[in-house]
Design brief:
With 986 residues, the chain is of the alpha/beta class. It has 34 helices and 35 strands. The protein is elongated and about 135 Å long. The C terminus is likely disordered.
Length: 986
């Protein structure tokens, strides 16, 4: 065997292909030795598919209830037997019945009675033969004879006299399937050299041609060419067809009714008629598939009549087999074997449904049945094996990660102690000796060294004893307390106990982790989560909780006197600072934040003990007056707050005069729940602002004001601005902290208006609400890439440009194609483009976003994670997220000097990023002290107003031409002087 052939065989036996190889072997077995099992499976699938497709079979029409179309059954039923005598009837009675049908002008008669033996009265056979010859279109049945084991051994035919008098003979065999039910018949069958058409097909041909001869009959056109007769076969079948799931409804006339009232035969003119026994206990019932897995029992004549109705409607189904079955079963399995697709619920569902859908389509459009049971079973086996292998791989991966985590824990700053079976120390590290004291040493018992409260010591010792009887790690549920030096608080510890495997299965490893910093950070995070980072005030969720609690604090239900208890009386003030956006537009975000901070302190200093102040968001605050008060008192309190807001605030050498619009809502007058009160107060605030601002408005029960048409006009104007490319980009440089050289620039959106450049804060909300985010984002990307081309054509060496994309753009799967098309069109290297995503967007759908970012990185585009620290991201997701840079949220950078918690978050973010080998950019640097702190913490790059303001492209080009010339020295950010280099750009 050659090397290439050996490698091919090894590739086919790869783990990813093994399930499909086994599926292929199963299919071969079902198509070969295990064919009976395949047949059973295909029958089950056929019943399901035909049930779904029965209403849409080609040519099928709903038969009328009155039986004016299709074949009619003359039923020899119980009533006929009771009136005309027991079975078998004399043949003269059959002759009378045929004469009656002849006089009625029927087209043809299918006689479902077997006249195989001569009558006791020979003249009776002559009488019946004469009636059949007079009618001229009577078809008689032929049946195979079977031995006791069911094997055919001959043919049961009518008397030669009667056979010669019949227009044709047809076989009436209904083959029984593997599950004991009858679903179809062979259009041709025979014994040795003899051949017969199916009885319904022979009747149809006789009715069409008027005789048993003629090669152009419907039967000859319907059936396939018969095979050469085999004289060695006692019974053979050819051209098997299946009856549709929803058979035609047939009309039955009792034989006694027809003979007793010949006038009833007038409706039979020109129609095919079946005569047969339907009486109970005479003709064996034929089991056929019914609804919901049930069995319908039909008499032989009913079955033959249904087959003829299906022939007339063209709904008989031809099953595909032989080569077609092998190809349609094996080719999909071979395709998956050569190029397996990753296992997924969609693939499993598609593999099970698509074959059934294809079979249904063929059944409904072509009246063909494709057995798909083998393909579905083999595919299900492969998908099940793939799932089991995936689960096994996941278990193996989890086990390896657990072992890695335990090994990593050994080298961290935790106390690690090995114990023998008697609880004596075998080995301990320096941290354990530090916590347990100088007496801690190998050979000493651990219990006396534990300086713990009695309950904590008992919990730990009991956990150590329990873990000796198991192999999994054990961790007590509650933190334990270990005493420190006198005067210091107890050290909270987390204990983890790991039993060692054989041959040291009597030993344990105890790991004690100090939770002091974790619990402190947890308290700080919990506080920060429920409080505003800038002002320290409660944020909206905490405020709503407090409001809801206050509204529910009153007694519920009737009081002691039996009357309803009064609802709590309180007031809600919604405060919005008038025209605050102008401060941010003219002075920058840092100065605007300073104004908000001072304003919040004013409001907080003016709060009474019974009042709760919170920041709602942006320049909006809410205040809860928890002391019972009437609406007039609430309005008076709101006017006092206007006076608190009014005095000027000096920022940046400017005295800023502020105003506020305050809406007031009182409970229970304006509402009894938090949502209603907030809505009323906010609506009232809107009325105060619409009236000119710096005033108070009560909530009342007035409806909300109509939408401001100016907002609608602004939204329309924004849509036009996007279409006409009115938006421009300014660029803020990013600098390396070690040498001060520019290493990047962030593209910032601006909208030129009559009153100056509008920042995104004034319009981005309407952009998002109006569904224009994706369109605007595409134009921003295109504009940034075009600007990079212009800088390159001007001979500059541009730094990478960062472009922010919104969460909605993150859901757009066309983003990589858009970026690739623009880069190719402008001939810009992909490394000069950096895509920024926010942490909250990254955590919204991490699996989808990971695939999107990997496609971008494959092109060479860099990825930055923006606003890190604000989204409560999962570190597991962050570890797998393909990012090239992490940007710290400016809120943490701006509050590092005042809040130790913010500095700790910045430090932890830098350490985390460096652990992931990703550089860090600190945004919002606005003071020399912040810069020095970032340098001490090991930050890589910085960005902010202290270093450079956002600039239009031409101004930034001048800086690049000056600073990025090959012969120009790189500027440095000085460690000593507050006058930073590069200088501020104004």
């Amino acid at each position: 065997m050659t090397g290439t052939s050996w490698r091919g065989l090894r590739a086919l036996a790869a783990p990813a292909r093994l399930p499909w190889l086994l599926a292929l072997l199963l299919a071969l077995a079902l198509l070969g030795p295990a064919q009976p099992l395949r047949v059973r499976i295909d029958l089950l699938v056929h019943d399901l598919v035909s049930t779904l497709a029965s209403a849409r079979l080609p040519g099928q029409a709903t038969d009328p209830a009155d039986g004016t179309e299709g074949p009619v059954i003359i039923a020899i039923d119980d009533a006929s037997l009771q009136a005309l005598g027991p079975w078998p009837w004399p043949r003269t009675l059959h002759a009378e019945l045929i004469d009656t049908l002849r006089r009625a002008g029927v087209q043809a008669i299918g006689y479902g009675v077997m006249f195989a033996e001569p009558s006791r009265q020979p003249e009776d056979d002559l009488r019946l033969a004469a009636a059949m010859r007079a009618q001229g279109r009577v078809v008689l049945p032929v049946l195979p004879l079977r031995d006791g084991s069911g094997r055919p051994q001959g043919v049961l035919e009518p008397l030669p006299l009667l056979a010669a008098s019949a227009a044709a003979l047809g076989h009436a065999e209904a083959p029984i399937d593997a599950d004991g039910r009858i679903r179809g018949l062979a259009l041709q069958a025979g014994s040795g050299l003899q051949r017969w058409e199916a009885l319904p097909l022979a009747l149809q041909r006789v009715a069409a041609t008027g005789s048993g001869g003629g090669g152009g009959s419907p039967g000859s056109r319907l059936t396939e060419p018969p095979p050469e007769p085999d004289p060695t076969l006692p019974w053979w079948r050819h051209d098997l067809r299946l009856l549709p799931d929803r058979p035609a409804r047939l009309h039955e006339i009792s034989a006694i009714d027809l003979l007793g009232d010949p006038a009833r035969a007038g409706a039979l003119l020109g129609r095919s008629v079946w005569v047969g026994v339907t009486a109970t206990g005479i003709d064996p019932a034929l089991p056929t598939p019914g609804r919901a897995g049930q069995v319908d029992l039909l008499s032989t004549v009913q079955w033959q009549a249904r087959v003829q109705a299906a022939l007339e409607q063209g709904t008989l189904v031809r099953p595909l087999g032989g080569l077609w079955l092998w190809l349609l079963t094996l080719l999909p399995l071979l395709g998956m074997l050569l190029r397996p697709l990753p296992a997924s619920p969609a693939l499993a569902l598609g593999w099970l449904l698509l074959p059934c859908a294809a079979a249904t389509l063929l059944l409904t459009t072509q009246a063909l049945w494709l057995p798909v049971g083998t393909l579905a079973c083999a595919g299900a086996l492969a998908l099940l094996l793939e799932r089991l292998m995936a689960l096994q791989g996941a278990r193996r991966g989890l086990r390896e990660e657990r072992e890695l985590a335990l090994a990593t824990l050994q080298v961290l700053g935790e106390a690690v102690i090995s114990l023998d079976g008697q609880g004596r120390i075998v080995q301990l590290n320096a941290r354990a000796r530090q916590w347990l004291g100088a007496d801690a040493a190998p050979g000493r018992a651990l219990a006396p060294l534990l300086r713990m409260p009695a309950l904590d010591r008992r919990i730990l010792l009991q956990a150590l004893d329990d873990s000796r009887h198991q192999t999994a790690p054990l961790t007590p549920d509650l933190p334990l307390r270990l005493a420190r030096d006198p005067g210091q608080a107890d050290r909270p510890l987390l204990a983890s106990i790991q039993p060692l495997p054989a041959p040291r299965d009597d030993q344990l490893v105890l790991v004690l982790t100090d939770l002091s910093e974790v619990m402190s950070a947890r308290r700080q995070i919990e506080h920060d989560r429920r409080h505003d980072r800038l002002t320290g005030l409660p944020e909206r969720r905490l405020f709503i909780e407090q409001l809801t609690q206050q509204l529910g604090a009153g007694p519920a239900g009737p009081d002691a006197s039996g009357s309803s208890a009064p609802a709590p009386r309180l007031a809600l003030l919604f405060i919005d600072i008038d025209r605050f956006a102008r401060i941010g537009d003219h002075l920058g975000h840092a100065q605007a934040d300073e104004v908000l901070l001072r304003l919040a302190r004013r409001l907080q200093d003016g709060c009474h003990r019974s009042e709760l102040l919170a920041r709602w968001g942006g320049d909006q605050f809410v205040m809860l007056l928890r002391q019972a008060c009437d609406p007039d008192a609430a309005l008076a309190r709101a006017r006092e707050l206007l006076e608190l807001v009014s005095p000027d605030i000096e920022v940046g050498g400017l005295a800023l005069g502020l105003g506020a619009s305050i809406g007031v809502a009182c409970a229970p007058r304006d509402g009894r729940d938090a949502d209603t009160l907030l809505m009323r107060a906010r609506t009232a605030m809107g009325r105060a602002k619409a009236a000119g601002g710096h005033r108070v408005a009560g909530g009342g029960t007035d409806p909300a004001p109509p939408p401001d048409p100016r907002q609608l006009g602004l939204e329309t104007r924004l849509r036009q601005a996007i279409e006409q490319d009115e938006f421009v980009l300014h660029y803020q440089l990013q600098f390396a902290l070690d040498d001060g050289r520019p290493v990047g620039a962030e593209a910032l959106l601006r909208w030129p208006r009559e009153d100056g450049l509008w920042l995104p804060g004034r319009f981005i909300g309407l952009i998002d609400e109006g569904g224009m985010t994706v369109a605007l984002g595409e134009r921003v990307i295109a504009q940034a890439i075009a600007q990079l081309r212009r800088w390159r054509e001007a001979g500059l060496a541009p730094v990478p440009v960062s472009v922010n994309i919104s969460p909605r753009q993150c859901l757009d799967t066309r983003l990589p194609e858009l970026v690739a098309e623009r880069l190719a069109q402008e001939q810009v290297p992909a490394a000069l483009l950096k895509i920024e995503i926010t942490e909250s967007a990254a955590m919204h759908d991490p699996q989808h976003l990971r695939g999107l970012l990997e496609r971008l990185r494959a092109m060479g585009v860099q990825i930055a994670l923006d606003d890190f620290g604000t989204g409560y991201s999962s570190l597991a997701h962050l570890r797998d997220m393909p990012v090239d840079q992490i940007k710290i949220d400016p809120g943490f950078v701006g509050s590092m000097e005042q809040h130790a918690g913010s500095r700790a978050i910045v430090e932890a973010t830098i350490a985390l990023a460096h652990g992931l080998k990703v550089p860090v950019v600190a945004e919002g640097v606005e003071s020399a002290r912040q810069l020095e702190l970032l340098r001490e913490l090991g930050c890589d790059q910085v960005q902010g107003f202290l270093l450079a303001h956002p600039l239009p492209p031409d101004a930034l080009a001048a800086i690049l031409a000056k600073r990025l010339r090959a012969d120009a020295p790189s500027p440095h950010i000085s460690r000593c002087s507050p006058a930073l280099s590069p200088p501020r750009i104004t």
